[in-house]
Design goal:
Layout: H1 2-41, H2 50-54, E1 62-65, E2 71-75, H3 91-101, H4 113-121, H5 132-141, H6 149-168, H7 171-181, H8 190-199, H9 208-217, H10 230-246, H11 252-259, H12 278-294, E3 316-319, H13 323-347, H14 363-375, H15 378-385, H16 390-396, E4 401-406, E5 414-419, H17 421-429, E6 433-439, E7 446-450, E8 468-469, H18 475-486, E9 493-495, E10 501-505, E11 508-512, E12 525-527, H19 528-533, H20 537-547, H21 549-558, E13 577-578, H22 580-591, E14 595-597, E15 602-606, E16 612-615, E17 620-622, H23 626-642, H24 660-663, E18 675-680, E19 686-693, E20 696-703, H25 714-717, H26 719-722, H27 724-736, H28 760-769
Parallel strand pairs: 1-3
Antiparallel strand pairs: 1-2, 3-15, 4-5, 6-7, 6-20, 8-13, 9-12, 10-11, 14-17, 15-16, 18-19, 19-20
Length: about 775
């Protein structure tokens, strides 16, 4: 009886235990479910709405795209992110990601139950349980937890968001979003930026071992950074390759061969001051800001903004720049300017020029230049804005400081040094500056834009910001007015004799009697073609006197030169200031049969969804007849056939050791038709060359920041020495790439040409009267 009583009590206790076990188990399950329900309702903190899950909001960099489909650069603040479609991700990248981060990715629905249980049992010692989907939810929608309970609650929210993401997106879309969102460091936001910055290529070009490097960085991009911790990242890459072999994506043989390879990092930082077309990109930034002011968004965005933002909205800006020609232009500028600068330094040592780099200035004038430069500097403006006194500001300019400065002789074109800020101002003034722009004359499409020698250290854009005296490159406008209005021909002749024009000066009429560059007058007759080729100033003076300054100014305005120009005879020799941008547009008119086409840099703007927001409309104007335009081209062909541009046809010799690379090292030997004009201003302050072939017009300018910074003589200071070599190098590089399609043929001649351009008979008659040997002068002024 007692045994039965004990058994009943035991049975009763067992059933009571079972009852409470199930009650507690059910309560736990319901509590967890309720906790997840609370999280989904937002009681545990902000959760994304359904609409936000449909369109996750991330900051997208605006992309600058070249005419040949390459990315020139991006506009971004904190997020250098450009999304890519899933089919642009190589299979090896997807395989590496799944093998390393989430082996059962294609089998679960956002939460890996097996992985979660393993993590709980072993307390995370045998790997975590976070799936790719959970990692994406963490990146997109949750903030970094402070720790403890906050971390547990965030994990719950991540699980809820992960299941929602799995319902809204395909597995492929989730991988694409994750790879777009991850920050790989060094402004490499997303896989597109990462592959370009670390390997210099698009994602679909990544090899397996390269993909393994980037996937390895997903564990912790700050720790596993290939620039700072190469060995650590190499080991991590090999771990990823091992995981790929473990799950059957690679054979053991493939894994071993890939693990033996070096990482092959090709670091290409995407900053606003580095990379290709930096000056153009900064011009484009201003263009976009002006466009945004005139083109509000059709509807408010989620942030309540009614204006586009080039740093956040992921715009795609299609430009006319050809990345290959742009690289050729930048290489040509760097190659020539490095050598030219060496000769400038050679001539301007302190013993040869006590006022270096300035020439022909008093100390008072030099002090004035330095004073203006100091007050215009960023240091002065920043300290003044901070409330510093003028005395404190001036004292700061005399205190030595560590700084990194530009240096042609360094591989990185930089060197670390110690100098005072005032000394650094003078140091930078010793460097010659350059500008170059290249344009397709028929369309106005700008193909290359180089505003200086190095944007990081010289941020003034000499293509469009800088305006300098045009010198002899202005003369074709005088000749064009004369041929257009007086119906002259390139074969008409004028004498090289002193010629004076009465002009109003300081309220009085005074004679203006220009001299030739050598100060002499041959007294001989010259065809217009020969006179322009050799920049004979007396002939140009006669032409402007006959046609009138007003007519020349009128044509110049129609050619797109917007600067106010005085209607005086002296403009014939190029005294007005112009920039390279407008000069190239003007010269393009001659090649384009007399039709001016305004230079264009942007053809189309799209939003992140591909909706077209802007398409350019060409701006054109008929300025000259086809006959006059062709006659001008024929005139300027003479510059490279027997004038100051003849060095494009063959190699020159020189005894100057320092400078010999500039001349004898550039055997251009072009045989194709080339029209052009060199230009040199007074005291050799500015050197120009405008060069043209049938489908490309290019302008080059070289000079100092100050007009008092220049070569002493014409040997190095003329346009044929300072600027023309850049054009020659650039065109040689272009012709080496046949895919560019740069013309080597002749210029298009009108079907019924009414202006005589064949000067053979005229020249023969003149040669009978003169000894032409003394008349073939290579100097230009």
């Amino acid at each position: 009886m007692a045994k039965k009583t004990i058994k009943k009590k035991n049975d009763k206790g067992f059933f009571k235990f079972i009852k409470w076990f199930w009650i507690l188990f059910a309560t736990g399950i319901l509590s967890v479910a309720f906790l997840f329900l609370l999280a989904s309702w937002g009681f545990l903190g902000e959760m994304p709405t359904f609409e936000r899950l449909e369109n996750p909001q991330t900051n997208l960099a605006s992309e600058i795209i070249s005419s040949d489909g390459e990315t020139l650069g991006k506009f971004y603040l904190d997020d250098n992110r450009t999304p890519v479609p899933f089919d642009s991700l190589p299979q090896n990248l997807v395989d590496a990601l799944v093998a390393t981060e989430d082996a059962r990715y294609f089998k679960h629905s956002g939460i890996d139950a097996r992985g979660t249980l393993r993590a709980l049992v072993f307390l995370g010692k045998k790997g975590g349980a976070s799936t790719i989907t959970q990692q994406l939810s963490k990146l997109l929608f949750t903030k970094k937890p402070s720790g403890g309970i906050d971390r547990i609650l965030q994990k719950i929210k991540e699980w809820v968001i992960a299941t929602r993401l799995e319902r809204q997106y395909t597995k492929e879309e989730i991988i694409k979003m994750y790879m777009d969102q991850y920050d790989f460091g060094y402004a490499a936001d997303g896989i597109r930026s990462a592959s370009r910055i670390y390997f210099g290529k698009e994602p679909n070009e990544l090899r397996t071992e390269e993909s393994a490097v980037l996937v390895g960085m997903l564990k912790n991009s700050s720790l596993y950074n290939p620039i700072r911790r190469e060995e650590l990242v190499l080991n991590r890459r090999n771990t990823v390759l091992g995981q790929m072999a473990k799950y059957g994506y690679l054979t053991e043989t493939e894994k071993d061969s890939l693990q033996a390879l070096e990482m092959g990092i090709n670091f290409n930082p995407e900053s606003h001051r580095e990379g290709i077309a930096t000056y153009f990109r900064m011009y484009l930034q201003g263009f976009m800001n002006r466009w945004i002011k005139k083109n509000p968004k059709p509807a408010l965005d989620d942030d309540g903004r009614d204006q586009w933002n080039i740093y956040l909205d992921g715009l795609r800006i299609y430009t006319t720049i050809d990345s290959r020609m742009q690289q050729n232009a930048e290489d040509a500028v760097a190659e020539h300017m490095k050598n030219l600068q060496a000769e400038f330094f050679h001539q301007n040592t302190s013993d040869r020029n006590p006022t270096a780099p300035f020439l022909e200035l008093s100390q008072e004038e030099i002090d004035g230049i330095m004073e203006r430069a100091m007050k215009n500097s960023a240091r002065w403006k920043k300290m003044k804005a901070a409330g510093s006194s003028e005395k404190e500001i001036r004292e700061s300019f005399t205190k030595p400081a560590e700084m990194t400065v530009f240096d042609w002789n360094s591989d990185s074109q930089e060197k670390d040094t110690i100098m005072t800020p005032l000394d650094s101002i003078q140091y930078y003034k010793t460097f010659l500056r350059a500008a170059m722009m290249s344009m397709e004359p028929q369309t106005g499409h700008v193909k290359a834009w180089v505003g200086g020698v190095d944007y990081k250290h010289f941020q003034y854009d000499n293509v469009i910001q800088g305006a300098r005296q045009a010198g002899s490159t202005f003369k074709p406008f005088v000749y064009a007015a004369a041929i257009d209005q007086l119906r002259l021909s390139p074969c008409d002749s004028l004498p090289d004799t002193q010629y004076c024009i009465e002009t109003l000066k300081h309220g009085n009429m005074e004679p203006w009697c220009p001299k030739n560059s050598d100060g002499k007058y041959s007294g001989r007759m010259h065809t217009l073609k020969h006179a322009l080729a050799n920049s004979i100033n007396t002939v140009t003076a006669q032409l402007i006197d006959r046609v009138g300054p007003k007519s020349v100014v009128s044509i110049v305005k129609n050619l797109g030169l917007t600067k106010e120009i005085p209607e005086v005879p002296s403009i014939a020799l190029g005294t007005p200031d112009f920039n390279v941008y407008e000069m190239v547009g003007a010269y393009g008119t001659f090649v384009n049969e007399g039709v001016y086409v305004k230079p264009v840099m942007v053809t189309r703007i799209e939003d992140k969804n591909g909706t077209v927001l802007y398409e350019y409309v060409p701006e054109t104007k008929d300025v000259l007849s086809k006959d006059v335009a062709y006659a001008m081209v024929d005139l300027m062909k003479g510059v490279t056939e027997g004038g100051s541009g003849t060095r494009l046809r063959h190699t020159f010799a020189t005894n100057q050791t320092v400078y010999k690379e500039i001349v004898t090292g550039y055997p251009y030997e072009f045989a194709n038709p080339i029209a052009g004009k060199t230009g040199t201003t007074q005291n050799q302050s500015d050197g120009w060359f405008m060069g043209m072939v049938p489908n490309l017009v290019t302008g080059v300018w070289v000079g100092g920041e100050e007009r008092s910074i220049h070569f002493r003589g014409l040997k190095y200071g003329q346009g044929a020495s300072m600027a023309l070599p850049i054009w020659g190098l650039y065109m040689r590089k272009n012709y080496a790439n046949k895919e560019l399609g740069v013309s080597e043929g002749d210029f298009l001649e009108p079907e019924e040409l009414s202006i005589n351009v064949d000067c053979t008979k005229v020249i023969e008659e003149l040669e009978k009267e003169i000894d032409s040997e003394d008349d073939l002068d290579d100097l230009d002024f």
